[in-house]
């Protein structure tokens, strides 16, 4: 994917005399200078996964998916930066899990991961004084990639939660560890009537990528960046909606509890905390279970374990692939994980809080409302 994205194959096929028909492998080879025989096998594999089409024997054309890897598209950094980094680091996953030192194998330290093994560094991947903090171009690539991931989850997150009612009468919606501000920008664009300010809190090195992104979305007047270390006391007090998305999965239970504890300290009856993150379900399948019709009766606008029909896994198999993939990503980079419901409850209990409600969404993540005990 990195190869075709960097070679700008989508653009080359889009400028073919007939883009529906596309180009032959020899024509692509003439345009790009790569070896036709070597490149054809790569294109065929990508066709089999839907990334391109073979419009007629020997002709390759763009598919709808190709737009995702087009230069200039919002998702361009996934094939060209993040997936590449994930592939490099994943190569050391076996050496992390089965490390010769038992202390390393059982460590929960975020400096004892596949990332440090692969990159031969002592620095943790992200956070204060991390590898990202010391490598601005990587911080930029990572910020852009997180923004692209946001595009995959924002539609469901926005559609399946009462954002306008929750923001009513509030001073601000504050996205803690909000990266480049994708969620705030998506919320601001979809809900023009929300009066509350949108604040993206993240480390100072994220400011540049965040402010550029917010400006590119035309939201600089409503969405503001604020440098804030979430291990320090929360500075924003008042009537606020705190949101924390895809952050707690980067940290151990104790550290994650510390992060939400700092938000808990400023919560009162006029403010709330929403955790947006996946909840991992078991993957076993049983030969017994309700009919499809009865199973679907359990679907509703709240998190619930839907009883699977016979031979369908509890996590609905491949539908939960992204959650399991992200689970391993945070393992290789941060020595942490996506949580199961009991692990989620444990983290919230350690922070001396409790779950009010878990909202299932059509995204791959749930929205968990958390309150003080
Ligand atoms: C996995 S990214 C998630 C970003 C964003 N919430 C999203 O969903 O796209 C984790 C974010 O936490 C930020 N972060 C890490 N350590 C932090 C700290 N100590 N204080 C504030 N933000 C931090 C990183 O800069 C990064 O933007």
Automatic annotation (TrEMBL):
The keyword S-adenosyl-L-methionine applies. Keywords: Methyltransferase, S-adenosyl-L-methionine, Transferase. InterPro entries: COMT-like, COMT_C, SAM-dependent_MTases_sf, WH-like_DNA-bd_sf, WH_DNA-bd_sf. Residues 171-283 form the O-methyltransferase C-terminal domain. The keyword RNA-binding does not apply. This is O-methyltransferase C-terminal domain-containing protein. It comes from Hohenbuehelia grisea. The lineage of its organism: Eukaryota, Fungi, Dikarya, Basidiomycota, Agaricomycotina.
